């Protein structure tokens, strides 16, 4: 039997209410969404919040909405909702690819998009996917609502720019023409965390890559992104050789952890392979075969 | 804190510590021991119950989060002495050996069949992929869920949860 340490429970009814509660408890309060990262950590006493602020009833945080040239994904959107979203599937198949291999269907009924990103586990799949898409995070504090590019959102393992009195409200993903995206993951068994995973998004004008995003999960990439590989590809014509070279560059610049999921050289090899594979699938989806 | 939870159509009011997990609340406070606890770490799925119509791992949900909500456990499956088709099919196909994983498997199977009355083997395997069985090797569980689909599709009573909803009473337990 694993039981968390004692805490008080508050149920927020709106974003403003949740932020008021965070201010009221002055650093002692912690937001709980799906609880599928936080509750296990509390059971192990790796986390001991004095007050839990439950945001599950905050309707403002739910829902996936197309708003002009952005897709807005609420922080409280459950993994399964994103997986089943026709809009997301059409615009950003990378998100659906990723959701299909995050945990299992029962965990996906509960875990949320916002919780995944705020958890900032180095193996979190959505961190790599949203980084590839160059999404923006909308964060509400007591005074202001600010927008932070997702690439500036992660401070380090388990650490983000969301302050103790702030709430992640939604992700905004820019919708631009000529895009294709994909997510590929290797894990030891169904539903497990990645040995390595890569998300790629390309924006093409004809055969030329005008913008590119490559996100790496569990592979020890700074801020989940392969910036050097992106710089190499930007402005180039899509080709199998260019994608293989991007994979090589990404592998060279990441620093995979050695753990029970495998040695570093294997993971580096995996990074190169998955970068090339995800880019190939992303450009196929953008209408360009390599 | 005081919470009111409707479990299998019956309303319960209890005073609990906020840290009590839903699985323990069901078992220890309400005596509904059909819900099992295996890993206690959201990995095995023995503890699956429905929360507002969706299967969740109740070892990783606070009872406080279920305040004002509907919970459905394995105890709700059989009605008027009649087994749910998933239960009958698990018997017919030897879907249970020690039975430890069975309550969670049954609740997920019922959910799957409510959404997809004729699931492929692949869909069944996907649906139960968050649940561990140490005995059966899964073959008989998959077969049982297929059979439940066939039983439901031939029976007059479709065995779905819609029937249960109609039966729900708002009765306050003492
Ligand atoms: C068995 C299992 C397998 C898993 N496998 C995978 C996997 O393969 N890949 C993967 O990527 N993930 C995996 N996960 C992780 C899962 O994606 C996350 O646990 C979960 O989605 C986190 O979201 P949550 O809503 O449960 O967050 P919570 O546990 O509620 O919160 C996590 C953290 O985020 C904070 N937080 C939550 N929402 C907000 C908000 N709106 N604003 C500010 N702070 C917030 C909380 O305070 C907490 O610190 C797995 C989890 C389990 C239990
Ligand atoms: S006891 Fe809940 S998942 Fe194992
Ligand atoms: S029947 Fe024993 S664990 Fe499944």
TrEMBL record, chain B:
<feature type="region of interest" description="Disordered">
    <location>
        <begin position="153"/>
        <end position="174"/>
    </location>
</feature>
<dbReference type="InterPro" id="IPR036884">
    <property type="entry name" value="2Fe-2S-bd_dom_sf"/>
</dbReference>
<keyword id="KW-0411">Iron-sulfur</keyword>
<dbReference type="GO" id="GO:0016491">
    <property type="term" value="F:oxidoreductase activity"/>
</dbReference>
<dbReference type="Pfam" id="PF01799">
    <property type="entry name" value="Fer2_2"/>
</dbReference>
<comment type="pathway">
    <text>Alkaloid degradation; nicotine degradation.</text>
</comment>
<keyword id="KW-0560">Oxidoreductase</keyword>
<dbReference type="GO" id="GO:0051537">
    <property type="term" value="F:2 iron, 2 sulfur cluster binding"/>
</dbReference>
<dbReference type="InterPro" id="IPR051452">
    <property type="entry name" value="Diverse_Oxidoreductases"/>
</dbReference>
<keyword id="KW-0001">2Fe-2S</keyword>
<dbReference type="InterPro" id="IPR001041">
    <property type="entry name" value="2Fe-2S_ferredoxin-type"/>
</dbReference>
<dbReference type="GO" id="GO:0046872">
    <property type="term" value="F:metal ion binding"/>
</dbReference>
<dbReference type="InterPro" id="IPR012675">
    <property type="entry name" value="Beta-grasp_dom_sf"/>
</dbReference>
<dbReference type="InterPro" id="IPR002888">
    <property type="entry name" value="2Fe-2S-bd"/>
</dbReference>
<keyword id="KW-0479">Metal-binding</keyword>
<keyword id="KW-0408">Iron</keyword>
<feature type="domain" description="2Fe-2S ferredoxin-type">
    <location>
        <begin position="1"/>
        <end position="77"/>
    </location>
</feature>
<protein>
    <submittedName>
        <fullName>(2Fe-2S)-binding protein</fullName>
    </submittedName>
</protein>
<dbReference type="InterPro" id="IPR036010">
    <property type="entry name" value="2Fe-2S_ferredoxin-like_sf"/>
</dbReference>
């Amino acid at each position: 039997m694993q039981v968390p340490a004692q805490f008080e429970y508050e149920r927020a009814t709106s974003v403003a209410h949740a932020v008021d509660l965070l201010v009221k408890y002055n650093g002692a309060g912690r937001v709980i969404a799906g609880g599928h990262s936080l509750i296990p950590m509390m059971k192990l006493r790796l986390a001991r919040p004095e007050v839990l602020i439950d945001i599950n009833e905050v309707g403002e945080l739910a829902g996936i909405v197309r708003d002009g040239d952005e897709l807005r994904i609420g922080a409280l959107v459950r993994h399964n909702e994103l997986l089943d979203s026709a809009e997301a599937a059409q615009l950003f198949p990378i998100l659906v690819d990723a959701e299909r291999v995050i945990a299992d269907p029962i965990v996906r009924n509960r875990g949320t998009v916002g919780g995944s990103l705020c958890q900032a586990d180095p193996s979190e799949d959505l961190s790599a996917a949203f980084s590839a898409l160059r999404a923006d995070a909308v964060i509400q504090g007591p005074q202001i609502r600010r927008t932070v590019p997702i690439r500036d959102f992660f401070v380090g393992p388990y650490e983000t720019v969301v302050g103790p009195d702030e709430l992640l409200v939604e992700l905004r993903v820019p919708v631009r023409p000529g895009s294709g995206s994909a997510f590929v993951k290797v894990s030891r068994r169904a539903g497990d965390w990645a040995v390595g995973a890569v998300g790629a998004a390309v924006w093409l004008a004809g055969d030329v890559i005008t913008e590119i995003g490559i996100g790496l999960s569990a592979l020890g990439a700074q801020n989940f992104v392969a910036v050097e590989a992106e710089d190499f590809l930007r402005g180039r014509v899509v080709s199998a050789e260019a994608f293989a070279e991007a994979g090589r560059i990404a592998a060279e610049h990441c620093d995979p952890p050695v753990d029970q999921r495998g040695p570093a050289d294997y993971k580096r090899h995996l990074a190169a392979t998955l970068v090339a594979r995800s880019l190939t699938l992303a450009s196929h989806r953008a209408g360009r075969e390599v | 804190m005081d919470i009111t939870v409707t479990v299998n159509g019956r309303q319960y009011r209890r005073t609990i510590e906020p840290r009590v997990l839903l699985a323990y609340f069901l078992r220890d406070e309400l005596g509904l021991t059909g819900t099992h606890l295996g890993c206690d770490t959201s990995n095995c799925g023995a503890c699956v119950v429905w929360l507002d119509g969706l299967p969740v791992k109740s070892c990783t949900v606070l009872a406080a989060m279920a305040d004002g909500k509907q919970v459905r456990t394995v105890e709700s499956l059989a009605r008027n002495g009649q087994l749910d088709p998933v239960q009958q099919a698990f018997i017919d196909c030897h879907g249970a050996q020690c039975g430890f994983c069975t309550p969670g498997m049954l609740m997920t199977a019922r959910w799957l069949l409510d959404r997809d009355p004729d699931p492929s083997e692949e869909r069944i395997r996907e649906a139960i992929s968050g649940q561990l069985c140490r005995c059966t090797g899964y073959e008989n569980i998959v077969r049982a869920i297929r059979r439940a689909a066939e039983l439901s599709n031939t029976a007059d009573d479709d065995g779905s949860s819609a029937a249960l909803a109609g039966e729900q009473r708002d009765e306050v337990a003492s």
